[in-house]
Specification:
64 residues
Length: 64
């Protein structure tokens, strides 16, 4: 059996009631659930958020 480290990048678009982006990031990092499950031949041993970046903070919504 081999142990490997995989780096997965996840993108999440969120709607928040917080006024400050840092509060939104903190809540997602500490309270949100992002899951990676086992497969038939792979057992997930550990996951963690390594980096949170904020980009495109003003999302254009067409038709609203």
């Amino acid at each position: 059996m081999k142990y490997e480290t995989l780096y997965l990048m996840v993108r999440a678009v969120v709607q928040s009631e917080h006024q400050d982006i840092s509060e939104t990031v903190h809540e997602v990092e500490t309270s949100a659930i992002c899951s990676v499950s086992n497969t038939g031949k792979v057992t997930v041993l550990e996951t963690e958020i390594l980096l949170t970046r904020v980009r495109n903070t003003k999302i254009k919504k067409h038709g609203t």
